[in-house]
Automatic annotation (TrEMBL):
Keyword Transit peptide among UniProt keywords: no
Domain of life: Bacteria
Residue span, HTH lysR-type domain: 9-66
Regions annotated as coiled coil: none
UniProt keyword Transcription regulation present: yes
Organism: Paracoccus siganidrum
Record key words, sorted: DNA-binding, Transcription, Transcription regulation
Single Gene Ontology MF annotation: DNA binding
The family this protein is said to belong to: Belongs to the LysR transcriptional regulatory family.
CDD domains in alphabetical order: PBP2_GcdR_TrpI_HvrB_AmpR_like (cd08432)
Protein name: LysR family transcriptional regulator
Length: 329
């Protein structure tokens, strides 16, 4: 029997593992690959048996990668992405004018999309595909060249450019503010709080926001949402307070759809980065979009800080270990 040259498990089994890891779900992986969940589970189990290590921890909500699973997923995602790029290049036979950009729903809705008309005017031959996800693992799709991510600047196999920092403060509807006029920072924990849950670990919640503002609160009660954009809609509908990210909600505050509540304003712990695969050359279209996003970011950095914000809002992000670079310009 001829030994497999690369000494790898079955490629079909690895593909099923990669899909399950990317979705954090065996069921969704099965739907993508048009097989049964049982088939995906059996293939993953065969890889685990061959490696002698568990790749997933199973729970009631889906699957969570172990350390070995995370390491294998990163290698496969990078390899599949590069392979897909080569296949697309061979099929196209020429440089494509398409570029896929991944970002969160709120960043797309409140920052990127309102600025896109400038791209269509200046670069009418560039076609942008918008990939909108809340789970950043899906940003590793092979067709995605550029990613806008909030965090501390360290992503495996990613080159990261820090474009701007942020501040956070409570916001609500004008009517809610009128009903609770006179409330102080110390009263925030007792008011209806709208929390954004089930997003990336770098996302700041109410408990940490209050602690950073000097308020020690017990168990917090309130409504929970899976998307920041939905929590904002609830706040504008007089349902409570939401943590406002200045770079995102600033225009809504200027328009009067939302108002700042109390004097609480603290630096966000992370920043907004533009990232791309370190092992993959950017296409001409992606390089053009990288430059355009950097230009827009310089305009954002020139905007006034929110009233009451300290001048140390970057909090030495650029000095952290990882792939992040200093704020350009």
């Amino acid at each position: 029997m001829v030994r497999r040259y690369y000494d790898l498990p079955s490629l079909s089994a690895l593909a099923m593992f990669e899909a399950a890891a990317r979705h954090s779900s065996v069921k969704l992986a099965a739907q993508e690959l048009n097989v049964t969940p049982g088939a995906v589970s059996r293939q993953i189990k065969s890889v685990e048996l061959e490696l002698g290590e568990p790749l997933f921890l199973r729970n009631g909500k889906g699957v969570v990668l172990t350390g070995a699973g995370e390491e294998l997923f990163r290698a496969l995602a990078s390899g599949f992405s590069r392979t897909s790029e080569v296949v697309r290049s061979i099929k196209a036979g020429e440089t494509s004018n398409n570029v896929a950009i991944a970002c969160s729903d709120v960043f797309a809705t409140m920052w990127l999309i309102p600025r896109m008309p400038d791209v269509w005017t200046r670069h009418p031959r560039i076609f942008v595909d918008h990939v909108i996800w809340e789970n950043a693992r899906n940003y590793r799709r092979s067709d995605v060249e550029l990613r806008v991510q909030y965090g501390l600047g360290s992503w495996v196999d990613e080159t990261a450019e820090l474009h701007f920092d942020d501040w956070i403060y409570p916001v609500c509807s004008p009517e809610f503010a009128r009903r609770h006029a006179g409330a102080t920072i110390g009263d925030l924990a007792d008011l209806p709080l709208l929390s954004v849950e089930w997003v990336e670990s770098d996302w700041l919640g109410w408990e940490e926001a209050l602690l950073r503002g000097g308020v020690r609160a017990g168990a917090l009660r309130g409504r929970r949402f899976g998307k920041f954009s939905i929590a904002l809609q609830a706040a504008m509908a007089d349902q409570g307070l939401v943590i406002g990210w200045h770079r995102m909600v600033g225009p809504l505050v200027e328009q009067g759809a939302l108002v700042r509540f109390s004097d609480l304003v603290v630096p966000a712990p992370g920043g907004y980065y533009l990232t791309w695969n370190s092992t993959r050359r950017l296409s001409d279209a992606a390089a053009l979009m990288r430059g355009w996003i950097g230009e827009q970011a310089r305009l954002v950095r020139a905007m006034p800080r929110p009233v009451g914000a300290r001048t140390d809002s970057v909090t030495a992000i650029s000095g952290r270990e990882g792939g992040g670079s200093e704020i350009p310009g």
